[in-house]
Amino acid sequence: MAANGYRTSTSVPGHHQTTLQSLPKTIGAANDYPIALVALSKRRHVVNYEGDEVSDAMVQECIAKAEEVMRLVRRWIEENRPELIKKAD
To answer: Whole-model pTM?
Structure first.
């Protein structure tokens, strides 16, 4: 979203979820992709605010999804907005 000049309002509840739900339109992610990310976000919320323990499996799943999002975004930027990529000197 930001690469195209759009931004969700951080003062409005749900702005993170809006960003996640935009991924199929903004970077061409699969339509069911945001569902998995929103589920992880909700689990993180429970951990943060209710004190539940974080399992190793949840940590690994979050890391894997974060790496996947980074790959998708990086590829989209390379293909659609290459001028945003900082060139090494």
So the answer is: 0.72
Question: Cα(86)–Cα(77) distance, rounded to whole angstroms?
Answer: 11
Assess contact for 37 and 65: CB atoms under 8 A. yes
For the CA atoms of the chain, what is the radius of gyration? 15
Residues 18-47 have pLDDT tens digits of 888 888 888 888 888 777 777 777 777 777
The residue type found at 13 is P
Domain residue spans of the chain: 2-84
The structure tokens 């699969």 sit at: 30
User: How many whole angstroms separate alpha carbon 49 and alpha carbon 70?
Assistant: 26
Residues 6+ apart with CB under 8 A from 28: 72, 76
